[in-house]
Amino acid sequence: MAISLTESAAHRVQSFLFARGAGVGLRLGVRKTGCSGFAYVINYADAALPDDVVFEDRGVKVFVDPVSLSLIDGTVIDFVKQGLNEAFRFKNPNVKGECGCGESFSV
């Protein structure tokens, strides 16, 4: 089981946490939504929750709840800038399909 980050994603998380002045890492999960079934939920973690599974990559801790982990195990988180747009992108080996708008996925 693993969640990993590209250098770009790790740098973005570290710089945001530094600017924010608080937080211990990144929280990644999923929620049911959209036309394909699930959507990623990403936030900054201020503390670990009792059931969190914690991964550390490139100096960044990633906190994942056990239910979400079964859907996103093996995911690589990237951070991409294209013109004025910037966003986290997910390379999830468990995805079987995605909706046309890219907001949701199925496993």
In terms of topology, how is this protein built?
Layout (H helix, E strand, L loop, with lengths): L3 E2 L1 H14 L4 E9 L3 E9 L7 E5 L2 E5 L1 H7 L3 E7 L2 E7 L5 E2 L6 E2 L1
Parallel strand pairs: 1-6, 2-5
Antiparallel strand pairs: 2-3, 4-5, 6-7, 8-9
Describe the structure in your own words:
The chain has 107 residues and is of the alpha/beta class. The protein has a single domain (4-106), classed as HesB-like domain (Hypothetical Protein Aq_1857, Chain: A, Sandwich), CATH 2.60.300. Helix content is 20%, strand content 45%. It has two helices and nine strands. The strands form three sheets. A four-stranded mixed β-sheet has the order 3-2-5-4. Strands 1-6-7 form a three-stranded mixed β-sheet. A hairpin with a 2-residue loop joins strand 4 (53-57) and strand 5 (60-64). The longest helix is centred in the N-terminal third of the chain and has 14 residues, at 7-20. The model has no long low-confidence stretch (mean pLDDT 89).
The CATH architecture name reads Sandwich
Helix tally equals 2
| The CATH class | Mainly Beta
Strand content: 35-45%
- Strand order across the largest sheet: 3-2-5-4
| Sheet with most strands | 4 strands, mixed
Please bin the fraction of helical residues: 10-25%
Count the beta strands.
9
Shape: globular
Distance between the termini: 17 Å
Mean of residue pLDDT? 89
